[in-house]
Write a structure and sequence with these properties.
Chain lengths: 239, 239
DNA sequence: CGACACCTTGAAGAGGTTCAAGAAATGTGG
DNA sequence: CCACATTTCTTGAACCTCTTCAAGGTGTCG
């Protein structure tokens, strides 16, 4: 084992189970290690890629936190998602070999660069990788269905509750608390994602605090009553 | 050429350019013809697949018109899209081998059934098909970004104008008029898709009619002033 | 410490929803 | 082929949620 190669080997990565297929043979895994050649650090506030840039690679997030956003011609902006360690960004670029959204680091981050040509090459040879790529793409479609449901049919409280539950659940899957989280984004970014104005997000937080559902100190949020949040999202199912 | 096989051969299909990859060698195309083994007719009002059903295949629409919709646990419903000839449905099922939405025929329809296992098998061998599948998935992600922008940041008039322009553009690509269309869905379904109530859809149509932008007779819509619709969507760019 | 970005809160206003009623189209069965 | 039931669409009026505008407070970073 060459110590220099360890640094970028998927087989040694603690996020392996989140972003790579499982159940590969050792031989297949060795091939996969060639998938990621380079890592890249992205400073907070800077972009990993931008709308209009040529698409070459998918990016697996190793550390840090991103938002992706699209813009309409007249400058309107919509956050389409927030991504954290183990998640893959750049899928939007495949269809026209151009990125159609911006990926902005909300904290200092590091990503593994996976050249898409290589992904396609390997997934012709490693069935498990092929499955995995298809699932990643499909998962993103299903996630967006959920966002459409949120934007199309929920009221402000339901949106914010859904958002908090989703965030904390993903963080928990990464070993963090089930009840405490630090928001990496501003109220305005939350609002953009949820189709609300920043004032509405702020007010809704305040209402949750009044009701004793959460504690909020700026970007530190502690969930005091998860069941109440679920109840807000899903008024019927009271157990 | 066996006359019986002609019926389900992609190489003879007039929608080929819409749903299949271009630039394949004749040999590759022959393989592709094995992709679709069966067609299926779906009566208006019935489902092609439902939330919770096992996923086995993608479906290329040959004729007819579909809506796809997701439901939340408490019965809320959200139309996630409308699909027409040449488009592919079922992508949501890949990630968990289960469909997560319903596909309902809004008029009598016929689809080509493409078993996904076979798609994966062939796309390991035919690079052009592999690219194509990736692009179809990515295109759906990008489309949904657009819907999120619509739902998150547009007002009722902008949403409906965007919707009409999108529909007529897709119909035009299939050889229909640039200015006339027949809606296959109810006001309620349009509203669900656009995050509006059916009354709001109706009122917004009426306002467009008052302003001389469109003519509406039930589900028959004639666009009188495309530029005005564009202006509504994109107030800045008056050229 | 001061500048800047971010967050909170209030009051007024707008856009969309809800509820209700009636009209128009569509489908069904005799 | 017509009469009736049903679904779909339109329109009005009152209401409600979220937005807009405004001001002040809090936190952070050079």
């Amino acid at each position: 084992m060459n110590p220099h190669s360890i640094k970028v080997a998927c087989s040694n990565c603690n996020l392996r189970e989140l972003c790579m297929p499982v159940g590969l043979s050792p031989e297949e895994f060795n091939r996969l290690d060639e998938l990621v050649t380079v890592r890249r650090k992205i400073k907070r506030g800077t972009t990993l890629f931008r709308n209009g840039e040529k698409f070459t690679s998918l990016y697996a997030i190793r550390t840090g936190f991103f938002k992706t956003c699209v813009a309409s011609e007249d400058g309107r902006d919509q956050v389409t998602g927030f991504q954290m360690a183990g998640e893959v960004v750049g899928l939007d670029g495949i269809v026209n070999d151009l990125h159609t959204c911006d990926a902005v680091a909300l904290e200092d981050a590091e990503v593994c660069i996976m050249p898409f040509e290589r992904i396609e090459e390997f997934s012709r040879e490693v069935t498990g990788l092929q499955h995995h790529i298809h699932k990643i793409l499909s998962r993103e479609i299903v996630r967006e269905h959920g966002v459409m449901l949120l934007l199309g049919s929920m009221r402000a409280e339901e949106r914010l509750a859904t958002f908090l539950l989703n965030l904390v659940q993903r963080l928990h899957a990464r070993g963090f608390s089930q009840s405490e989280l630090v928001l990496r984004m501003t109220r305005e970014e939350i609002g953009s994602f949820l189709g609300l104005k920043l004032e509405t997000v702020s007010r809704t937080f305040s209402r949750f605090v009044e009701d004793g559902v959460v504690e909020v100190k700026q970007r530190h949020v502690r969930i005091l009553n998860t069941e109440a949040l679920r109840e807000i999202v899903n008024p019927r199912a009271s157990t």
